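Hi all, long-time lurker, first post. I run a small reading group and we've been trying to get comfortable going from sequence to structure in the token notation. Rather than ask abstract questions, I figured I'd post a concrete chain and ask someone more experienced to write out its structure so we can walk through it together at our next meeting. Sequence below, copied exactly:
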Amino acid sequence: MPEPSEAVPGRGSPMPPRPHRRILGVRVDDVTYNDALDTCASVARLAGIGPGYSLPPCYAVTPNPEFVMLARRMPDFAEILDGASVSVPDGVGLMLAAHIQGMPLREQVRGTDLAYGLMEWAASSGARVFLLGAADGVADAAAAKLCHRWPRLAVAGTFAGDASPAGDPATRAAVVAAGRCDLLLVAYGAPRQERWIARNLHRLDVGLAIGVGGVLDFMAGRVRRAPEPIRRAGLDWLFRLAMQPSRFRRQATSIPAFVVLAAAEAIRMRLERRG
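-- Answer (accepted) --
Happy to help. Here is the structure in token form:
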């Protein structure tokens, strides 16, 4: 049976624990897409700075095997992942790792799907959204396409900015100038986007922040997303690799190592259960 989450969601927010798995030390919540969407939407409304909010600003993370391997080398990144209000199983590799552990996760929840779902929810609920990061002009193009798709979507602001600590004053100022934002999408890539959130979220009137990597490129139409049949087959990572060969070196290093370590962990856990 899955153990209850001992992590502190949202860095201290009084949220109930949820079932999860530990995959090479990284917490991955056993959630479905609908679970994740409902939790994120609720937190976005309930969290914020000042009276009237029952939660402090919170954040969500979308681990995949690359996240896991980064977290093994970077203790601060591992701590940030552990402090998220929700940690969705984004990568198919996590699904396989949990399965061979003998404790399968219910559903792969792609971070891209979750981001689009949150945009649809924001358009229907009146929630305000800020798009931060990506290359110059990408966030603006994404906002235009999202508002065309959902005319009622309230995009409070966009800003490319700089993910480094030196850029924090400017990025914070851009978000603060937009006023209350229920959702903040941060597109600097892991681990920079999660580190940016950890450094800055507590100073912003934001309900929920989520690192979205290259999702703004999809939303802007700059990068083609894998067709639905490929996504259903769990091969969207391979399609993206074909579209962006520059990712190959990074994945060629991290994915084989993840497979070996996840298999070894699964064997260890099964032997411990037998003992």
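A couple of things your group might point at:
The longest strand covers residues 181-187.
Residues 3-274 form one domain.
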